Amino acid sequence: MKNALLIVTVLFAAIMSTACINNFAVQELNNKAAEYLSKGDYDSAIGRLEASLDIDPTIFETNYNLGVAYINAEKYEKAVEVLNKASSIKPEQSDIYYSLAVAQYNAAEDILEGKNEEIDDDEADEQPLVQDGQMSAKKEISIEDKQEAAKLYSDAIKSLEKYLTFTDIPADSKSSAESQLSTVQNKFSELQKQLPTEPNKEEKAPEGED
User: Fold this and answer.
1) pLDDT, tens digit, for every residue of 40-64?
2) Most buried residue among 8, 52, 78, 207 by CB atoms closer than 10 A?
3) 4, 78, 164, 168, 171 from 180: Cα distances, Å
């Protein structure tokens, strides 16, 4: 399902036009980033967009496009952060909520797969798959990690539900989002079964205590 969501966002989350940007330096950086994005050079696009935000962090299109670039580079936690910012700048833009849901969902999947964005590709290559003649064991997922993943699933559900409140979305996009929503809801429900239940706050105190 992770790959399906990622494929959908590549097709669906079109790059926002930056023609309305007045700052020439920002416009140039965004235009160059768009070229890199179209070629699949996401790291170069990210570099240009991050430099653009250093000049002016308030432009919605820059934040949105950076979020899309992060998603395609599979840097989902960073995508969540920047897309949340974009949604606060222009909350009436429907596409932002679908892209945000994709980032949140995939960030949760990464956690449950034991992946860590802080480990770069070179470090990952250096980590041995075989130790002492045996395959290394898969990383055990802690309760805290599962709780974090559950929150991201929950956030993805809210983002998709928000997206579906807009009346201007095409019928095929709405149908796709509804299907994605059902999938994420099911995964969230299954993960919740693996988490400890919160203690009842209204439980009576043990005898002998006030």
Assistant:
1) 899 999 999 999 999 999 988 889 9
2) 52
3) 9, 21, 11, 19, 14
